[in-house]
Amino acid sequence: MLGALGAVAALVLFVLAHEAGHYFAAKATGMKVTEFFLGFGPRIWSFRRGETEYGIKPILLGAYVKVVGMSALEEVPPEDESRTYRGKPFWAKTLVVLSGVGANFLIAYLIFFGLVLYQGVPEPTTTIGDVVAVSEGRPTAAAQAGLQPGDRIVAIDGEPTSEWEDVASTLAGNPGEAVVLTIDRSGRTLQLEVTLGERIDPDGRRIGFLGVAPRVENRPAGIGEAAGLAGLQVVDGVRFTFASFFELLQLDNIARLFQGLLGGEVPTEVRPVSVVGVVQLGAQASDLGLANFLYLLGAVNVILGTLNGLPLYPLDGGHFAVALYEKVTGRQADVRMLIPVAVMVIGLISLIGVVAIVLDIVNPIRL
Known about the structure:
Layout: H1 2-28, E1 33-40, E2 45-49, E3 52-56, E4 59-67, H2 90-119, E5 121-131, E6 134-135, E7 138-139, H3 141-145, E8 152-156, E9 159-160, H4 164-172, E10 178-185, E11 188-195, E12 197-200, E13 206-209, E14 212-219, H5 223-248, H6 251-261, H7 275-287, H8 290-308, H9 316-329, H10 335-362
Parallel strand pairs: 1-3
Antiparallel strand pairs: 1-4, 2-3, 5-14, 6-7, 8-9, 8-10, 10-11, 12-13
Helix pairs in contact: 1-2, 1-7, 1-8, 2-5, 2-8, 2-9, 5-8, 6-10, 7-8, 7-10
């Protein structure tokens, strides 16, 4: 329950942070902001401070900031024309429309940075973490040799193995061969002769197979390393989101989504997750520990930032694309031409969102 409530609170915070990015960027560049609301629909509660009205509306599917003059068709009093979005230079428009995306990426980066500092960097060790008993219907070499979790591989054929990479490369290079493993088992040194099995790697090469997995341990990370690794996690998250989004748009995967509404199986890798699903995953992740819960929140911010950055009008990336077009061509974009695009984008997002909510209710994702 606490995990679910935490996920709900975090989602509200992330949405508000996104809109706050737009708000503060607009204020900083001299634009007039008249509304900052959580939710959509009729006003439930609001107050005015200065020229901006702040409040809550009942349909809690997002938030918005109203900047005067976002559209060339909007009628604006002459005295406010100099403070409109449309009247500002390209750099100011860019700052305003991409600041929300930037806020989500910044939150994700700070979460990942903190997690790396807190957890350290996971690295495989030469200590055996797991032993595979059977592979392809036969006992593995590790099982036949009596290897146990907790055994540390000190050397192979007399060559010291200080890192797991040494173990993996030596084993891979001796398919079907007999090797001598020097094992440290609770302080006792054992010499075990093992005949390796073999497998075919993705490149079609024969490689040796022992049948063990390394124990993974975290080592402390410095600030510089944590900063770099957090950035890589954000970049990897962006790549994954792009790949998943365009995979989802494949016609066969769209068909699978609708089949899922009728009880069919929908592969996790192409299944969209709604707000309901994020709350469900938040509850499960919190049961697995604070670090897993925080990682989920970081990933949610990467997804929000990436999808909002797509060059599809009226998303933030679409507004940037329009501003860029106007800068390059020197002509004002015809907003009326963009209305059908906006309708299609909103319709697609709404359709996927409804399907995702239904799937998350009838067939929740399990971690």
